[in-house]
Amino acid sequence: MSTPIEFYFDFSSPYGYFMSEKIDAVGEQHGRDVQWRPFLLGAVFKETGGQPLTAVPMKAEYADKDLARTGRFLGLPFQIPSAFPVSSAKAARAFYWLEGQNAVLARNFAKKVFKAYFVEDQDISQVEVLQACAEPLGVNGDELAEAIVTDDVKAVLKNVCAEAIERKVFGSPFVIIDGEPFWGVDRLPQIEVWLAKGGF
Amino acid sequence: MSTPIEFYFDFSSPYGYFMSEKIDAVGEQHGRDVQWRPFLLGAVFKETGGQPLTAVPMKAEYADKDLARTGRFLGLPFQIPSAFPVSSAKAARAFYWLEGQNAVLARNFAKKVFKAYFVEDQDISQVEVLQACAEPLGVNGDELAEAIVTDDVKAVLKNVCAEAIERKVFGSPFVIIDGEPFWGVDRLPQIEVWLAKGGF
User: Fold this and answer.
1) Interface contact A154, partner B, CB < 8 A
2) Which of residues 80-139 of B touch A (CB under 8 A)?
3) How far does CA B76 lie from the centroid of its chain?
């Protein structure tokens, strides 16, 4: 097993959701583990002057169309949530709290959060929604609610965001393979060739 | 022959160059003519607040890597020009002046301009470079130099830019097929499916 694929994403990023549904299978096909790294795009935008898609004239309208079409192209259920974008800080903190216990559990939770937001139109900034994602996985919802407001868990996410800025992860999804950066779900074809050939 | 594919691009856009090397073959495969529409991205950026890639922190460095990689991925010769970006107004005006005479001639000129800039590292903001692109096609270089400073030719380009803004063409390359907008050379796989199925 070679170096893991690093997968940075924001839980409120629709293109991040699309990538989350594809990257594990791509990794498996090429004998690579995938390390999921939720972070806060807002923290990076403060450095880069970046803006959410919905804030850019013309682009916002295009994004609506492109997202719906990309979902169909990739064969994934998708709708733009009623509340969009929302804060994904609590979801990301819950992820890292769970990862401290069990990496597979954390990833299963992440998948449920993405589906809750982009398929079932639930507001993932709400603790109750995160609890409803975690409880079917055997997680105690009260413990989750307590954990995500502790300084320790907050610090983990802060460090990941600082690391993302340090590593110039300026968008979501952002995949790093052996140091090579790939921004956007539309780089999947390049990622597949890269993994197959060990670079090109 | 159905409605033409509309292909908007800026001559100083590297992703526009990549698309210019692919879109005609894709159109031909699906029985569609392609209408080439050079415009000035700078005119649109005034409306959207958009910025050239090189002006955005973190993104600029990524773009260098992504452009080189995308060139290799698509099998196209490419280098980032020494002077980048440059004004493409004269190149675009020369295109429309030639198009007024012969659409095929204009397209052949456009291909030479793209190659001069992104393969041979020539500064396409210089009239001499444009003349050197046009002369092997049987165009009189002196006439070209005179034409591109006339009010008539300037007005054609101004109108195309206004039309691009009106139609929300906010980036390069930007392809419109039967009213459906596709931004970026990375949308080629979606374009191909769209053309094959008549939408999806």
Assistant:
1) no
2) none
3) 16
Q: What predicted TM-score, i.e. pTM, was given to this entire model?
A: 0.95
Using CA atoms, how far apart are residues A58 and A71, in angstroms rounded to an integer?
Answer: 20
| Digit-coded pLDDT (tens) for A40-80 | 999 888 887 777 777 777 888 999 999 999 999 999 999 99
H or E element in which residue A6 lies: strand A5-9
Q: Which two tokens stand for residue B151?
A: 């009010």
Q: Which two tokens stand for residue A155?
A: 């610090």
- Whether residues B61 and A193 touch (CB distance < 8 A) is answered with no
Give the mutation candidate from B46, B53, B58, B186 for the A interface (greatest A CB count, under 10 A): B58
Under an 8 A CB cutoff, do A189 and B65 touch?
no
Nearest to A181 among B62, B190, B200 (CB): B62
Rounded distance between C-alpha atoms, residue A190 and residue B79, angstroms: 19
CB contact under 8 A, B73 and A168: no
Q: Given pLDDT bands bounded at 50, 70 and 90, which one contains residue A1?
A: low
- Taking contacts as CB-CB distances below 8 angstroms, the residues of chain B near A65 are 180-181
Whether the bond between A38 and the residue before it is cis, its omega within 30 degrees of 0, is: no
C-alpha distance from A170 to closest chain B C-alpha (Å): 7
Interface residue A75 vs chain B (CB under 8 A): no
- Taking CB atoms within 8 Å and a gap of at least 24, the contacts of B43-46 are B43/B161, B43/B164, B43/B165, B44/A58, B44/B161, B44/B164, B44/B165, B44/B169, B44/B170, B44/B171
* Interacting residues of B119 by C-beta distance below 8 A, sequence separation 6+: B77, B78, B79
Cβ contact, residue pair A190, B70, below 8 Å: yes
**3-class SS string, chain B:** CCCCEEEEECCCCHHHHHHHCCHHHHHHHCCCCEEEEECCHHHHHHHHCCCCHHHCCCHHHHHHHHHHHHHHHHCCCCCCCCCCCCCCHHHHHHHHHHHCCCHHHHHHHHHHHHHHHHCCCCCCCCHHHHHHHHHHHCCCHHHHHHHCCCHHHHHHHHHHHHHHHHCCCCCCCEEEECCEEEECHHHHHHHHHHHHHCCC
ipTM of the complex: 0.94
Are B170 and A59 an interchain contact pair (Cβ–Cβ within 8 Å)?
A: yes
Sole residue written with tokens 């997968």: A7
